[in-house]
Amino acid sequence: MHPARDAQRTAPAPEKVAAVAESKPTALQAEQAADAYAVEQAVQQLWANRFAQGAGVSPQEGPGALGANPEPAPEIGGWETEGSDASVLKQTKQTNCGAAVAVMLGNDLGTGKTQSVSDTQKMDALESRFTDGKGTSPHELSNMLANQGLKVTQTSAGLDKDSLDATLARGGKAAVMVDSCLVDPTTKEGETGLAHWVSVEGKDDQGRYLLKDPSTGTRIPVDAQRLADSMEISWAKHKGGGMMLVESANGIGEPQAAAESGQKVASMGNTDGVGSRAQANFGRESS
């Protein structure tokens, strides 16, 4: 169970994107709001248990448990990465991880490689056109993706492993809002971070998901349980999170792709994804 899904924010001005259907909270969502505090406490305990120094993962432990024998989560401070990768676009501001993810996915699956401007210019243009400069909501990110020749095919407030695996198998990818504790190497035991966008590009030979993290410019392998937990923590702490599956728009125009994609993202809430707390990471060095 997740905290209440906040009503989706008002769509951007018509000159920016096509109008999309707006969602209002249901009676069930209103009822869930009363349990938000209890859920937050449960997830705080989950975080403490899951990511404490040396802690392992139990398949029965906490909400969102996945699989029979998930791999142990790395120790705090023991972040495993595959190092810097030229395909991982590093965000240039505290707040533009969403634009960085949109540009990366556009370069991989959409029209990004046909655009004659730099990746930094693309990020700046997307942030300026679709956001208020304070972060990127799921709705805003879906509009950015449409601009980059992509469409959102499915969304979920938590990890839908089967759907994610099927999308990756046919060449699609995902944009995921997590708590930045998942990827921020400065996180200390028991801490949570900020709502943050990363992309999922595939899986490694150990079955772990490969994330592209714009806050550090690295690829990071994580197991399914840890990825699911980070979405749960994002909901408990930031009232939004989850995943959107992304594929090529295949010639569908931007207004239609924006309208169709925008109708799918209400389940992820209306939280702005930003970055990690390691602000020293951000600079203007991206190409």
Name of the CATH class of the domain at 80-276? Alpha Beta
Assign the CATH superfamily of the domain at 80-276. Phytochelatin synthase, N-terminal domain
Alpha-carbon distance between the two ends: 41 Å
CATH level-two architecture of the domain at 80-276: Alpha-Beta Complex
- What general outline do the C-alpha atoms trace? globular
Largest beta-sheet details: 6 strands, antiparallel
Radius of gyration: 18 Å
What percentage of the residues does DSSP assign to strands (E)?
5-15%
Q: How many alpha or pi helices?
A: 8
CATH topology of the domain at 80-276: Cathepsin B, Chain A
Helix content: 25-40%
The helix-and-strand class reads alpha+beta
Task: List segments where confidence is low: pLDDT < 50 over at least 5 consecutive residues.
Answer: 1-40, 50-79, 283-287
Give, in spatial order, the strands making up the sheet with the most strands.
Answer: 1-6-2-3-4-5
Number-wise, the strands total 6
How do the helices and strands follow one another from N- to C-terminus? HHHHHEHEEEEHEH
Q: Provide mean pLDDT, rounded.
A: 76
